[in-house]
Design goal:
7 strands, three-stranded antiparallel β-sheet, single chain, two-stranded antiparallel ribbon, mainly alpha, about 40% helix, about 5% strand, 18 helices
């Protein structure tokens, strides 16, 4: 008598087979394709390096954020150890000096290329995606080798990378492998034959060294990599800042600024109408100020060309109730804001931004405005603007109701029109910082 297999066993067999196939695919995708003969694995790159390559490598390391992210506050340059907070825990940057044991001193140019283009370390382990290897995969091979050649000249500092503080099993190799198979594909740069050399240079820098999409792109709840050219805007956790869409003219001033205005903002942190704040100020401080005038303009040309090219879904546009000024708001504004921003929100060129007609003021999500009201801050200190103007914090000066009233005033005056800000929204940002 033949024994029949029950439906439940067939389902179990099907699930098991599917899991085996998926695990095989993930294993091949992340490790199998890199299996090479021993002679190939041990080969050393013999690329000739000259002074121009070293200078280009140093330049790219600065504008690409290598120096900024891999240098801890008060620490040795590029020795790593900088803490980077993410929604999934804290990670610490690695040592990029020429140290043999804990740095890149024992690496080859091929090892480094593998890291930047494939997100794989010298020993084969998969790198955490806090390192934006989707963007570094855009770099040309020559630029990767130039960066590596310069890093090999950096003074060796033997300093081990601190242990990451991620909730288990996050950060384990199997989890990273699955994540990469879902969200990572190397993206070599593709120039547009219809565009100018300046536009293509700007596109290359925005997608590689600038990695603008890392902040201005969309991520899902699993922290997926955005596409390298995604500029549709996104929430930056855990900082609670909104990186606005650079495609939507209602969210950015790119359209109303000239390429030279945009380039000035990228290099100095301010122009006649805008001041870099929050994470953007940090970008300018640490990387943007090192851009050459030509490269900053090229990035500006590319960014400006993208405004309005794609419909952005980053922020809702249907607002049924608009902010209005309360009886107490004009006096609050006059006391705390008008001296710098003007009686009619006109601002002061190259000092304090105008509030009238400013896309940041009428943003649908007011987190950035609340952050600035609560904590103030200075624009970035740069070579061409070493003493920036600043804004005082009102964390202990104004309560939640008063801050909401001031923001509703500036969001409803001088032609501005936006949704109201509630005291509860102010309180949620205030509470998130404790």
């Amino acid at each position: 008598m033949t024994q029949r297999t029950s439906p439940l066993k067939w389902v179990a067999l099907l699930i098991t087979a599917t899991l085996l196939l998926l695990s095989s695919w993930v294993t091949w995708d992340n490790w199998g394709r890199f299996i090479q003969p021993a002679s190939s694995q041990n080969s050393q790159a013999t690329t000739q390096v000259n002074a121009a390559d070293l200078a280009r490598g140093e330049y790219l390391a600065h504008i690409g954020g290598c120096v900024a992210c891999h240098t801890a506050k008060g620490g040795e340059t590029l020795a790593g150890g900088r803490r980077i907070d993410t929604p999934f825990g804290a990670v610490f940057s690695s040592n990029l000096t020429s140290a043999k044991e804990t740095g890149l001193g024992s690496w080859t140019a091929a090892d480094f290329e593998n890291a930047l283009h494939w997100g794989r370390s010298r020993d084969g382990h998969l790198l955490l995606p806090v390192f934006p290897y989707n963007h570094t995969s855009v770099f040309t091979r020559d630029d990767v080798h130039a960066i590596f050649a310069w890093l090999q000249t950096v003074k060796p500092v033997e300093q081990a990378q601190p242990a990451h503080r991620l909730t288990w099993p996050l950060g384990t190799q199997p989890v990273i492998a699955v994540w990469r198979s879902l969200f990572f594909t190397p993206t070599p740069f593709q120039a547009s034959v219809q565009a100018s050399d300046e536009w293509n240079r700007g596109a290359y820098l925005v997608q590689s060294a600038g990695h603008c999409a890392a902040c201005h792109g969309q991520r899902n709840v699993m922290g997926s990599f955005p596409a390298v050219d995604d500029l549709s805007g996104g929430l930056m956790r855990p900082q609670l800042w909104i990186a606005p869409s650079l495609w939507d003219a209602k969210q950015t001033s790119l359209q109303q600024n000239t390429p030279n205005d945009i380039a000035q903002l990228l290099r100095t942190g301010h122009n006649a109408s805008s001041v870099a704040t929050g994470p953007m100020a940090e970008f300018v401080q640490q990387t943007g100020q090192y851009l050459s005038a030509e490269d900053a303009r090229a990035m500006a040309v590319y960014l400006k060309s993208k405004v309005g090219s794609v419909t952005s879904s980053a922020q809702p546009t249907n607002v049924n109730v608009f902010a209005s000024s309360s009886p107490a708001a004009p006096e609050l504004y006059k006391t705390h804001c008008a001296t710098c921003h003007g009686e009619r929100g006109e601002g002061k060129a190259n000092q304090y931004p105008a509030l009238a007609g400013n896309p940041a003021i009428v943003a649908t999500h007011p987190q950035n405005l609340i952050q600035m009201m609560l904590y103030g801050g200075y624009g970035p200190s740069t070579k061409e603007n070493p003493r920036p103007y600043g804004m005082p914090p009102y964390l202990f000066t104004l309560n939640n109701q008063q801050i909401a009233e001031v923001l509703n005033h500036i969001r409803s005056q001088w032609g501005n029109q936006a949704a109201p800000v509630s005291p509860m929204q102010v309180d949620s940002v205030r509470a998130a910082s404790y």
